[in-house]
UniProtKB/TrEMBL annotation:
InterPro entries (alphabetical): Alkaline_phosphatase_core_sf, Sulfatase, Sulfatase_N
Protein name: Sulfatase-like hydrolase/transferase
Pfam families: Sulfatase
Keyword Transmembrane helix part of the UniProt annotation: yes
Keyword set, alphabetical order: Calcium, Hydrolase, Membrane, Metal-binding, Signal, Transmembrane, Transmembrane helix
Family: Belongs to the sulfatase family.
Membrane-crossing segments per the record: 24-43
Sulfatase N-terminal domain segment(s): 55-383
Classification lineage: Bacteria, Pseudomonadati, Bacteroidota, Cytophagia, Cytophagales
Cofactors: Ca(2+)
Gene3D superfamilies, A to Z: Alkaline Phosphatase, subunit A
């Protein structure tokens, strides 16, 4: 039909046809009606054009990966060739954020927001009875598959994905002995089994699924959530060796400890902060950065294998790849080790969209949330998002048709922090200690110089406080920005006693929780 429709006239045994369009034929010689009908069927003249298959989606998610822990983001030390190539082949967002958390396990609400498209105070960290991204895609003809970390309850995974293999239900585990299970049916998993190293378990399951889809009719949504580089920072030796000779620089905003408490002393001792002593030992932080980078390099290697499987299976021309992380991590920045703060290093995460028809080798500085991904993928696949989604469709930003979907962005952590930023300014408010920080992100991206106390910036502080209140009202955050009882800012971290959690393997206990000697 495609070849025939290119010819204006076709003469078939005395019958002269004019092919005006693919869908219609006009006959210009008299002949038998039966013969005419025969040729109409033969040529497909009355057939409607087949709709193209919806694009497949491969969603790659890492755990605790800072936005700057990526070669494509300008990091000169980390080795991420496959992720760098993916970023070059697509669109990388430089201002992608987790909105925040209601507790110290920031990854749980982050993932709930991602999968629901809802903001923090509309979903918290539970997904039971909530319509999720894979559910919506499945209802629109997609085969859905999940592997890796699921930190929002087993029942919501069973409801969200049609298939699941090597699923880890929880927040963290020993990477060498990760307990995983498979989905049996809509109400059951297999019993958990310790099979091997987390990154390889999840990548192998993803590759097996992609390979299994060769020759199938339905498009697929395949989601892999690595537990790397979340602690325990315990890379395989061959990846750690790649950083053995590197002088890993400390973060530009490294401090021996945070200069004030957030309002509750236990927030300065949340489990992540016990992974290094106070004051922070520069050698220990550099060691942890090596381990952190090595775990990302391992994930990068397996992400390369996943992308190769997409190509080998013949899906490259019809697959959208999304790569992101749930949030960032301090690792010495501002004297912190974890992600339980609203500084850029902790709330920012990488985000890349790549695939056929999308721009290549471009960046976008639009202010976006992880929960914008849900409605964006709906648009890119021609699927209607469910009611109640708070995220914004980023497809026009990706295509370069719009500069952004919002002019400011709001982040929040428990009852101790609230923050708002625009393209230039960022304000963080600590209600319990009646303290405010104002940063000029254009000139101070590391958030080192607090301008809130300077007279020349009084108007800007009031303006940003008003913007913060507006965001609270829009997102149903009811926290008062000044507490009824103000507590002191000062604290003495040298009195803190470090306590490892139950998930730390023996070598981490030996290295980081006994007398420490910095590695050369």
């Amino acid at each position: 039909m495609s070849n025939i429709s290119k010819k204006p006239f076709i003469n078939v045994d005395g019958f002269l046809f004019l092919a005006m369009r693919k869908e219609y034929c006009a006959i210009f010689s008299v002949g038998s009606l039966a013969v005419v009908l025969f040729f109409q069927v033969l040529m497909g003249c009355s057939q409607k054009k087949e709709e193209p298959k919806k694009p497949n989606i491969v969603f790659i998610f890492t755990d605790d990966q800072r936005a700057d822990a990526l070669g494509a983001a300008g990091n000169q030390i980390i080795k991420t060739p496959n992720l760098d190539a993916l970023a070059t082949s697509g669109v990388r967002f430089t201002n992608n954020y987790c909105m925040g958390s209601i507790h110290g396990a920031v990854c749980a609400p982050s993932r709930a927001m991602l999968m629901s498209g809802k903001s923090l105070y509309h979903v918290y960290d539970k997904l039971d009875t909530v319509t999720t991204m894979p559910q919506v895609l499945a209802a629109n003809g997609y085969t859905t598959f999940g592997t890796g970390k699921w930190h929002n309850g087993g029942n919501s995974f069973l409801a969200s994905f049609q298939q699941g293999k090597n699923v880890f239900l929880g927040g963290m585990d020993d990477h060498f002995n990760t307990a995983v299970r498979d989905k049996v049916n809509d109400s059951t998993f297999t019993e958990p089994i310790e099979k091997g190293f987390s990154t390889d378990l999840f990548a192998d399951a993803m590759i097996d699924f992609i390979t299994s889809q060769k020759g199938t009719e339905n498009p697929f949504f395949a989601y892999i959530a690595f537990t790397a580089p979340h602690d325990p920072r315990s890379p395989l030796p061959q990846y750690l060796e790649q950083y053995a000779g590197d002088t890993v620089p400390l973060p530009a905003n490294f401090k021996p400890w945070h200069p004030f408490n957030f309002g509750e002393i236990n927030e300065m001792q949340v489990r992540d902060e016990h992974l290094a002593p106070w004051p922070r030992d520069p050698g220990m932080i550099q060691d942890q950065l090596r381990e952190y980078y090595a775990m990302i390099t391992h994930a990068d290697k397996r992400i390369g294998d996943i992308i190769a499987s997409i190509e080998a299976s013949g899906f490259a021309d019809n697959t959208i790849i999304v790569y992101a992380a749930d949030h960032g991590l301090a690792l010495g920045s501002h004297g912190l080790v974890g992600k339980q703060s609203l500084y850029e290093h902790s709330m920012k995460a990488p985000l890349v969209f790549a695939g056929p028809g999308l721009p290549a080798n471009e960046t976008r500085d639009a202010l976006v949330y992880l929960y914008d991904i849900f409605p964006t993928l709906c648009n890119l696949t021609g699927v209607e998002p469910p009611e109640g989604v708070d995220g914004k469709d980023l497809s026009k930003v990706i295509m370069g048709k719009e500069g952004g979907v919002r002019t400011s962005l709001f982040t929040t952590y428990r009852g101790t922090h609230r923050a708002v930023r625009d393209k230039k300014w960022k304000l963080i408010r600590y209600p319990m200690i009646d303290h405010t920080q104002l940063f000029d992100l254009e000139n101070d991206p590391d958030e080192l110089v607090n301008l809130a106390g300077e007279k020349e910036h009084e108007v800007k502080v009031r303006e940003m406080m008003g913007l913060l209140g507006s965001w609270q009202r829009r997102t149903d955050d009811t926290l008062q920005l000044t507490a009824k009882t103000i507590v002191p800012m000062e604290y003495d971290p040298t009195t803190f006693e470090r306590k490892p959690d139950v998930h730390q393997p023996p070598f981490v206990l030996e290295k980081y929780f006994k007398e420490y000697k910095a590695q050369p």
